[in-house]
Amino acid sequence: MSGAKQRTALIVAAVTLMAMMLRAPLTSLGPILDNIAASYHLAGFEVALLTSVPILCFGVGAFAGPWVVRRFGLRTGFTLILAAMTVGVIVRPWFGFGFMLALSVVIGLAIAVSNVLFPTLIRTEFPDSVARMTAFYTLVLPIFASLAAATAVPLMQGLGDWRLSTALWALPGVAAVVVWQLANRANLSQPASVPDLPHSSKQVWLSPVTWGIVGFFGFQSVGYYAVVNWLPAILMSQGYSQAQAGTLIGFTTMVGIPFGFAITSNLKRFKSLTLLIVGISLLTSIGFAILLLGSSLSLLAGSLIGIGMASTFPLSLALIALKAQNPQTTTLLSAISQGLGYLVAAAGTFLVGLIHISTGGWVASIGFLVALSLLQIAAGVIAAKRNL
């Protein structure tokens, strides 16, 4: 195998391992929040904080993405990010709630920068296959996010400790660091140049497309993280056991993956992105509405929510890569869209828990999610109109 082909294979392997780390450290916590709360004697507010702080970090940390590219370049930047994320996952569960919250911040910031740089990495390493590689890594990401959620309770029960079950998710990070270094050895390729940001970012900041993507990305992220963090509690309030709730959330986050992959990898075949955005966003809102009808329809609700979410997330990332015209603009648009979008997601996820605490039930919280998924349609229509 030639050096170029060997490097490409290693880059694909590294992308796979990196994508495995971008959600699993968070989704592995949702089904076992009750166990964590019991271990640390947490109040409801502290549990809500633990679920929302990493997403808040996604927003704040995203704005560091352009600086990381300028200061270190993509290759060294990803190495530092992966190392911080991996160490954080290993150490996080062992030293009490304060330490866990602090390292959740570290993990959240590392994931945030990775989120921003991934579209740039894809555009730089695979310039002729942006949609296909975006579809690929956004296929890997939810698969392992779902796997982490579905196996959280069985792993905890099998290992006898929730701490071990969450720390295990550092293993893909260790492998990712090794493979990433192999892919970028000096004898395989020259060091990547460090892209500069555009001389003026005013056009990107003022574009309606940017703000459409911010809204679309942010509202769909609220739905996803509300499901990951709060759906187990909603299901248990409807009579499901902890194990059953964990299995159903795994199903919800997994069922739509083939749809999301098919849509993203064939985006160029769709005559109207607007109709696509409206259709898949409606699926999400209908799914949340059905969740209000009780446990007998939870499987149907989970199916519709899962298909909608698994389609809107990769579409939102593909929009970032496709609407920008070069890697430099891609990095800036990615930082703005994901930075502000994840701030919306953090606030929304926290509000879902706060509404529940205030009302003593889940009806108002679910109604809030229905409303946001409808707002997602309006934002997506604006994002689909034209390029930057």
Description:
By secondary structure, this protein is mainly alpha-helical. The protein has one domain: Up-down Bundle (Growth Hormone, Chain: A). The protein has helices at residues 3-21, 24-27, 33-40, 44-62, 65-91, 97-125, 130-159, 162-167, 171-183, 202-206, 208-237, 242-255, 257-265, 273-291, 298-323, 327-359, 363-384. The radius of gyration is 20 Å and the shape is globular.
List the topology elements.
Layout (H helix, E strand, L loop, with lengths): L2 H19 L2 H4 L5 H8 L3 H19 L2 H27 L5 H29 L4 H30 L2 H6 L3 H13 L18 H5 L1 H30 L4 H14 L1 H9 L7 H19 L6 H26 L3 H33 L3 H22 L4
Query: What is the straight-line distance between the termini?
Result: 40 Å
Beta-sheet strand percentage? under 5%
Gross morphology? globular
**How many domains would you count in the coordinates?**
1
How would you briefly describe this protein structure?
The protein is mainly α. It contains 17 helices and no strands.
Q: What are its keywords?
A:
388 residues; mainly alpha; Growth Hormone, Chain: A; globular
